[in-house]
């Protein structure tokens, strides 16, 4: 664990830290990219398409929304359970879209599969926002779901539908949904113009609802969303985040003025060393900084300063006390599912390094200057750690490398498939599979688990869900990272 030291750490020492990873054979980043995207097919809910590649999955939850007279089938299960949580699903869709926007040219033949992954998310988000002034933000009662260990295909738990509206606001989840729709509209702008326009128009209306009826969705939906995806950070960042993506997608002056007018009110510089489904501040600053670095928006210079401070706060040796490094070199932040921080922060490191490179700029960090290549090297270190360059010589991506987690905390993966076991497996009947020491019968190819602890130790065991559970928002930013490194070794 690296302890904070003076910001005057010589750059040469920092380079030694970055380069001290255990060396292995060159990774096949394109194979890892293919598998990383394939994972999303294992998380699909609803009626599966004919080109579904993970064949051990079957249709599930096809009647979602029937209790409220809406078709809310489709979308993604967020992790190893069978709930559709709209907040992390929207963030996943935003990051998949950003990955394609910045790194799609590096994806080669996998670009088509990445586009399908985005569209599977946006098709659902369009359903969830089809009623003006309403966003359906969750399908499934989390307590009855978490009380069972059953395949999504057998699901008989409550499929309760939860929504936000004018009387029960949720600016956080609505703002993130607007961001996802806006970002995806850029992805499909030249590929499917009519679909792109639909996405952008819906993003505009959802953002207007989020801004006009302000509040955190965990205020009115606390019993359903807490402690699972409770809004701890507040809704203000999602409003800025949504406005930033709408400005990027539409180039409308109103969003530029909104950002400028609300920068302080909505606390753009808060909690800069974190980025994920609940905290968008670092992402906002990096995204908007591109405009500044390209010389097109000097009035947003404070966002560039915030982005620089974010970068300095996570560099090894000078990192903020909230950002640590394991002895093996993995970024570590306290809390569950650490790999979500690793992939999201690494994505920002890489993205910002590219923006800096094009502007021929560095990041001033006290007594030294961090170059774009240094940021890329740190991001690559994290990716290589995930793929097997770590003390355990274990890939934390299922199906990649010679050794990877075999007992992941994931219902569909850990229970026999419908093809292997056609009879229904009841709610409690699945417990014996959960407790079994045997490997999961279905390989969820591409799933990246929560990962090792701060000492690089990893229990390959289902009950240790913080370490062994995969999530869509771990994989989404990794798509962009792997795309880049598959083309830039």
Automatic annotation (TrEMBL):
Record's keyword annotation contains Hydrolase: yes
Signal sequence annotation: 1-25
EC nos: 3.2.1.4
Reaction it catalyzes: Endohydrolysis of (1->4)-beta-D-glucosidic linkages in cellulose, lichenin and cereal beta-D-glucans
Any Gene Ontology biological process: cellulose catabolic process
Highest taxon, organism lineage: Eukaryota
Catalytic-site annotation from UniProt: 409, 460, 469
Positions of the Glycoside hydrolase family domain: 29-482
Keyword Cytoplasm (UniProt): no
Keywords of this entry: Carbohydrate metabolism, Cellulose degradation, Glycosidase, Hydrolase, Polysaccharide degradation, Signal
Annotated GO MF terms: cellulase activity
A Pfam cross-reference name: Glyco_hydro_9
Sequence similarity: Belongs to the glycosyl hydrolase 9 (cellulase E) family.
PANTHER family with a match to the protein in the record: ENDO-1,4-BETA-GLUCANASE
Listed name of the protein: Endoglucanase
Organism in which the protein naturally occurs: Cucumis melo (Muskmelon)
């Amino acid at each position: 664990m690296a302890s904070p030291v003076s910001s005057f750490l010589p750059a040469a020492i920092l380079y030694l830290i970055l380069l001290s990873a255990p060396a292995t054979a060159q990774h096949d980043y394109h194979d890892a990219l293919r598998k990383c995207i394939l994972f999303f097919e294992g998380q699909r809910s609803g009626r599966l398409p004919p080109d579904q590649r993970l064949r051990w999955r079957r249709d599930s939850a096809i009647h979602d929304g029937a209790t409220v007279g809406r078709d809310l089938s489709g979308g993604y299960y967020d992790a190893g359970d069978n709930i559709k949580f709209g907040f992390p699903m929207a963030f996943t869709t935003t990051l998949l879209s950003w990955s394609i926007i910045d790194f799609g040219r590096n994806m080669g033949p996998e670009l088509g599969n990445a586009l399908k992954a985005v569209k599977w998310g946006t098709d659902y988000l369009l359903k969830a926002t089809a009623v003006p002034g309403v966003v359906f933000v969750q399908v499934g009662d989390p307590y009855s779901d978490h009380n069972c260990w059953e395949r999504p295909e057998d699901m008989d738990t409550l499929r309760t539908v939860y929504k936000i509206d004018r009387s029960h606001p949720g600016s956080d989840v609505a703002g993130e949904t607007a961001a996802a729709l806006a970002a995806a509209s850029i992805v499909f702008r030249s590929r499917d113009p009519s679909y792109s326009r639909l996405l952008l128009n819906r993003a505009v209306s959802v953002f207007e609802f989020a801004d006009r009826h302000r509040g955190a969705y965990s205020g009115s939906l606390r019993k359903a969303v807490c402690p699972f995806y409770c809004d701890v950070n507040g809704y203000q960042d999602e409003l800025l985040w949504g406005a930033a993506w709408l400005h990027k997608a539409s180039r409308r002056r109103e969003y530029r003025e909104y950002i400028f007018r609300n920068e302080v009110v909505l606390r753009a510089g808060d909690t800069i060393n974190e980025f994920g489904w609940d905290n968008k501040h670092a992402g906002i600053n990096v995204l908007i900084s591109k405009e500044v670095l390209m010389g097109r928006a000097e009035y947003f210079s404070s966002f560039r300063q915030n982005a620089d401070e974010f970068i300095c706060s996570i560099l090894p040796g000078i990192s903020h006390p909230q950002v640590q490094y394991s002895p093996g070199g993995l970024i570590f932040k306290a809390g569950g599912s650490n790999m979500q921080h690793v992939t999201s922060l690494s994505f920002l490191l890489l993205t910002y390094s590219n923006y800096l490179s094009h502007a021929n700029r560095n990041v001033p960090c006290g007594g030294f200057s961090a170059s774009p290549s240094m940021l890329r090297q740190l991001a690559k270190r994290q990716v290589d750690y995930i793929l097997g360059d770590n003390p355990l010589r274990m890939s934390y991506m299922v199906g990649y490398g010679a050794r990877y987690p075999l007992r992941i905390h994931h219902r569909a993966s850990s229970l026999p498939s419908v093809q292997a076991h056609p009879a229904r497996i009841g709610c409690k009947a699945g417990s014996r599979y959960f407790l079994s020491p045997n490997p999961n019968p279905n390989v969820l190819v591409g799933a990246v688990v929560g990962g090792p602890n701060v000492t690089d130790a990893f229990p390959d065991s289902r009950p240790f869900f913080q370490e062994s559970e995969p999530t869509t928002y771990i994989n989404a930013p990794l798509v962009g990272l792997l795309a880049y490194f598959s083309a830039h070794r």
